[in-house]
Here is the input.
Amino acid sequence: MKSQGEIEAAVCDGVSRFQQEFIGRGPRDIHAHLVGTLLMVRLQGVLTPAERQLLAPRHEPAAETAGGANGNGNGNQQGNGRALLKQVRAHMVATGRERLTEMVEAATGVGVVSVHHDISTVTGEEVLVFSLDKPPACRPKATKKS
Here is the structure.
Protein backbone atom coordinates (compact mmCIF):
# COMPACT_ATOMS: atom_id res chain seq x y z
CA MET A 1 0.00 0.00 0.00
CA LYS A 2 1.34 3.44 -0.97
CA SER A 3 1.45 6.50 1.22
CA GLN A 4 -0.45 9.62 0.15
CA GLY A 5 2.87 11.27 -0.70
CA GLU A 6 3.90 8.34 -2.91
CA ILE A 7 0.59 8.53 -4.80
CA GLU A 8 0.97 12.29 -5.29
CA ALA A 9 4.60 11.89 -6.44
CA ALA A 10 3.64 9.16 -8.96
CA VAL A 11 0.88 11.37 -10.38
CA CYS A 12 3.25 14.35 -10.66
CA ASP A 13 5.76 12.19 -12.51
CA GLY A 14 3.11 10.84 -14.89
CA VAL A 15 1.58 14.25 -15.64
CA SER A 16 5.03 15.76 -16.17
CA ARG A 17 5.92 12.99 -18.67
CA PHE A 18 2.57 13.55 -20.42
CA GLN A 19 3.35 17.27 -20.75
CA GLN A 20 6.83 16.58 -22.11
CA GLU A 21 5.52 14.18 -24.74
CA PHE A 22 2.42 16.17 -25.79
CA ILE A 23 3.70 19.75 -25.44
CA GLY A 24 7.42 19.23 -25.86
CA ARG A 25 8.39 20.45 -22.41
CA GLY A 26 7.42 19.83 -18.82
CA PRO A 27 6.24 22.31 -16.21
CA ARG A 28 8.66 24.43 -14.18
CA ASP A 29 6.95 23.18 -11.01
CA ILE A 30 4.26 20.58 -10.29
CA HIS A 31 2.37 19.56 -7.15
CA ALA A 32 -0.45 17.07 -6.59
CA HIS A 33 -2.87 17.16 -3.67
CA LEU A 34 -5.11 14.21 -2.81
CA VAL A 35 -8.17 15.20 -0.78
CA GLY A 36 -10.71 12.42 -0.38
CA THR A 37 -12.00 11.61 -3.86
CA LEU A 38 -10.37 14.64 -5.51
CA LEU A 39 -6.86 14.62 -6.93
CA MET A 40 -5.70 18.11 -7.88
CA VAL A 41 -2.55 18.69 -9.94
CA ARG A 42 -1.13 22.21 -10.21
CA LEU A 43 1.46 22.89 -12.88
CA GLN A 44 3.35 26.17 -12.99
CA GLY A 45 5.47 27.58 -15.78
CA VAL A 46 3.81 25.56 -18.55
CA LEU A 47 3.68 28.06 -21.41
CA THR A 48 6.11 27.46 -24.25
CA PRO A 49 7.93 30.42 -25.83
CA ALA A 50 5.64 30.11 -28.88
CA GLU A 51 2.55 30.24 -26.64
CA ARG A 52 3.85 33.30 -24.79
CA GLN A 53 4.45 34.97 -28.16
CA LEU A 54 0.90 34.13 -29.23
CA LEU A 55 -0.43 35.83 -26.08
CA ALA A 56 1.76 38.94 -26.31
CA PRO A 57 0.01 42.00 -27.70
CA ARG A 58 1.77 43.37 -30.75
CA HIS A 59 1.79 46.97 -31.84
CA GLU A 60 2.84 47.33 -35.46
CA PRO A 61 2.72 50.28 -37.84
CA ALA A 62 -0.47 50.38 -39.93
CA ALA A 63 1.42 49.66 -43.18
CA GLU A 64 2.66 46.31 -41.84
CA THR A 65 -0.76 45.16 -40.69
CA ALA A 66 -2.70 45.96 -43.82
CA GLY A 67 -2.48 42.35 -45.03
CA GLY A 68 -3.53 40.84 -41.69
CA ALA A 69 -7.07 39.58 -41.31
CA ASN A 70 -7.51 41.10 -37.87
CA GLY A 71 -5.20 44.09 -37.96
CA ASN A 72 -2.29 42.92 -35.82
CA GLY A 73 -0.78 40.01 -37.73
CA ASN A 74 -0.63 37.54 -34.82
CA GLY A 75 -4.24 36.54 -34.27
CA ASN A 76 -4.35 38.21 -30.86
CA GLN A 77 -6.89 40.98 -31.31
CA GLN A 78 -9.60 40.87 -28.62
CA GLY A 79 -8.19 37.77 -26.96
CA ASN A 80 -8.04 35.49 -30.01
CA GLY A 81 -4.60 34.20 -28.98
CA ARG A 82 -5.90 33.47 -25.49
CA ALA A 83 -8.94 31.59 -26.79
CA LEU A 84 -6.81 29.66 -29.28
CA LEU A 85 -4.31 28.62 -26.60
CA LYS A 86 -7.07 27.45 -24.24
CA GLN A 87 -8.73 25.54 -27.08
CA VAL A 88 -5.49 23.80 -28.12
CA ARG A 89 -4.55 22.85 -24.54
CA ALA A 90 -8.08 21.56 -23.83
CA HIS A 91 -7.90 19.50 -27.03
CA MET A 92 -4.55 18.02 -25.97
CA VAL A 93 -5.97 16.98 -22.59
CA ALA A 94 -9.05 15.52 -24.29
CA THR A 95 -6.83 13.62 -26.72
CA GLY A 96 -4.68 12.28 -23.88
CA ARG A 97 -7.54 11.75 -21.42
CA GLU A 98 -7.40 7.95 -21.67
CA ARG A 99 -3.65 7.92 -21.01
CA LEU A 100 -3.97 10.36 -18.08
CA THR A 101 -6.84 8.31 -16.62
CA GLU A 102 -4.85 5.06 -16.86
CA MET A 103 -1.85 6.70 -15.19
CA VAL A 104 -3.96 8.08 -12.30
CA GLU A 105 -5.77 4.75 -11.85
CA ALA A 106 -2.41 2.93 -11.70
CA ALA A 107 -1.04 5.41 -9.15
CA THR A 108 -4.14 5.50 -6.93
CA GLY A 109 -5.58 2.01 -7.36
CA VAL A 110 -9.09 3.44 -7.86
CA GLY A 111 -11.19 4.47 -10.85
CA VAL A 112 -11.37 7.96 -12.34
CA VAL A 113 -14.90 9.35 -12.71
CA SER A 114 -14.04 12.60 -14.53
CA VAL A 115 -11.17 14.88 -15.52
CA HIS A 116 -11.32 18.68 -15.41
CA HIS A 117 -8.75 21.07 -16.87
CA ASP A 118 -7.99 24.79 -17.16
CA ILE A 119 -5.00 26.98 -17.94
CA SER A 120 -4.33 30.59 -17.01
CA THR A 121 -2.92 32.55 -19.91
CA VAL A 122 -1.91 35.29 -17.48
CA THR A 123 0.12 33.28 -14.95
CA GLY A 124 1.08 30.26 -17.07
CA GLU A 125 -0.48 27.97 -14.48
CA GLU A 126 -2.42 24.86 -15.45
CA VAL A 127 -4.66 22.70 -13.27
CA LEU A 128 -5.96 19.18 -13.69
CA VAL A 129 -8.58 17.82 -11.31
CA PHE A 130 -9.39 14.12 -11.26
CA SER A 131 -12.61 13.02 -9.58
CA LEU A 132 -12.09 9.50 -8.20
CA ASP A 133 -14.78 6.88 -7.59
CA LYS A 134 -13.60 6.40 -3.99
CA PRO A 135 -10.77 7.61 -1.78
CA PRO A 136 -7.55 5.66 -2.46
CA ALA A 137 -6.32 3.37 0.31
CA CYS A 138 -3.24 5.02 1.76
CA ARG A 139 -0.74 3.93 4.32
CA PRO A 140 -1.30 5.97 7.49
CA LYS A 141 1.16 8.74 8.18
CA ALA A 142 3.94 7.83 10.58
CA THR A 143 3.53 9.38 13.99
CA LYS A 144 6.45 11.03 15.71
CA LYS A 145 7.48 9.58 19.04
CA SER A 146 8.43 12.11 21.67
